[in-house]
Amino acid sequence: MATSEEELFASVDALLEEEPQLPPPAERARLREAAGITQARLAAAMKTSTQSIKNWENGRSDPKEPRLSAYRRLLDGWAGKHPAPGAASIPAPAPAAESPSATVPRASTGRTAPVDPAREITEAVEVPAVSVAPESPAGRPATSSRRPTPKKTAGPALDPRFPHGPLAVLDGDGSAYGVDGIVLDCPARTIPELVEWTLKESGLGAPKLHRNGKDSDPLIVLTAAAAVKLGLPERLEGHEQRRSLRLSADHAVVKEVAKAKWQLTQRGFGPWARIYRKAQAGQRQCVQLALLPWDALDERSWPGVADMEPADIARVLGVYAQRVITPRGSTAVSGLELMTALRPPTKAVQDRATGNWVSGHNPGSLGTDPMDPAPPEATAEHPVVVNSGWSGGFLNEEAYQWVRDVDLLSDEECTLPYAVGLDLNTAFLAAAARLVVGLSAPDYFHTPAFNPKIPGSWRVDLSHVELDPRLPSPFTPDGSRPTGPAWYQTHTVAYAQELGYNVAPVEAYLRRETGAYLDPWHDRLKTAYVDTLADLGVTKDLDDRQFLAAMERHKQADPVMAAVLAAIKATVKGGVGKLRERPQGKSYKAGERWPALQRPTWRPDIRAAVISKARVNMHRKLSNMARMTGLFPLAVLSDCVVYPSPGESPLDFLPYAASGKPQPGGFRLGPTPGLAKLEGVQTMLWAVDLMEQGLNPARHIKGGDAVLDEGE
User: Fold this and answer.
1) How far apart are the C-alpha atoms of 529 and 673, rounded to whole Å?
2) Distance from C-alpha of 16 to C-alpha of 33, rounded to nearest angstrom
3) pLDDT digit string (tens) for 142-174?
């Protein structure tokens, strides 16, 4: 049968389009050794891991494009210089003249010209390798190539135990995208194989944040394609909230995990699954998984991240891990875990009797045992309340939700055309600074003398305190005046005393051992917040006008860093809220102990202290503003205050000295926690109209959350 020229050309073209063939694995290793190149040097040049090179040379896996073409080019070059024993040396042909239409192979660095891998190996040894994000796979748009490069910040020294960073995002083709643009080849086909690879071959993990703490377990984030490849359903479906959904105990993957002698935590196999074995020789064996298609990265805390490309997701989570902590669950969970990581409950102490080193209490921490709160600090369903029949009332230290009565608006205020929202940057983080809290169990006292230095809960009558009705009361979340004795946290009572009023507690639950437990947590998160804002162009050296302009555009400067900033803010609120996590599930009955109560960090008194101090700080600023400018707020919602204004900018009403500097004591603009930023502008008439309808304009004007999230 005759064959046409077109058919032959089509067959040849098909061969040309096939992936380049590599020599046998043993020959790959021989060529590298003949060239005198180590696996580590080759890995640096190929922008991959040493383990990947080992896999290529023992036949466990082959590189994928664009590394495949580059690796074949390198091996061909070495083969010409180091032919196999007994093979005839054939001179390499002279290079052909380059054609304008010549096809240039894709390289992982995104260069547009051919690269000599052998030269790259030499350069990798002579100068530090530059971390470059890999090119997106075919058919996938490159999301980061046109973004401005953020300012590089000095990171921690690389731990040789974890050469590839704290985490990786695994895609369906086996590519595991790590920090600094590295891509690892993951051959795992099942969840147990993935866990083994992560612990033994990936080089992932992070060092402990405190000398008495523990290293962070490696995190593997699974895309939808990776989840399906590993035998997991693409979505978890059910009647429960998605964060509560878990694989059933008889699911094939759960059985695989158990058969391989791995264990799941009590949380089961959900969006954030922890798989572990008991530590051996003091070494933890635990891997954290996060499943993107199961909504592991909540849109409220990680805006837009779940829809990013794997390399960008790795960048977001990598920066967060470097500046905050390797994610271990929701941002609320991570915020709570950060407290423990920076204040470990135990440390090594020497037993005087035996001379052996044993685990002992770490001073300043919350210890290892959970602690029941005082009845007024607990929630109504807590066993302390239900079992004792407590009916003496509860602390009500919550964030502001207040709107000024429309009858208290002046005619002049009603004629102002704007209502401007000022949001305090991470107000609850600022309140945690140098905050002294109780570290021991509460003790009961009858008619104690008030001491503002002792943390605890005081029952006192503050109804006699007279304040301007145009301001919210500092003693209640809704801003109403107290009507009789009630329970208050120390900071609230101390503020009444600061205002010049006598306080005479009827009773109190106080703690004898105290400390600034949250200080390292505050310091780390504040640094993370300020540094991330600076990466987005919002720096401390800007004047107020420049600051407002920078804040207006910061989210568009780099979506990746903007997502990191949102996650840091969510970590603060969620972490504080998690200190009083409520029971979950329809089957719960009041009086039963729920899982969160088993944590030493279930401390509603510490949460109350943070919120009390933040609300007092807000009222102090409101009072100073009224004194300096004669302005009174229209509404306050959590950490956002709304003022009537002649213009749409806070510059139109904030107090400034003749020198142009902001007046101390009132609201000031800036990127530091506790300072203010423009949060939203609405017309004054619209706000008044809402109040006339009996609605709270603070709920309709963009601002802070009404309550602190109590976690997941």
Assistant:
1) 8
2) 30
3) 333 333 344 444 445 568 889 999 999 999 999
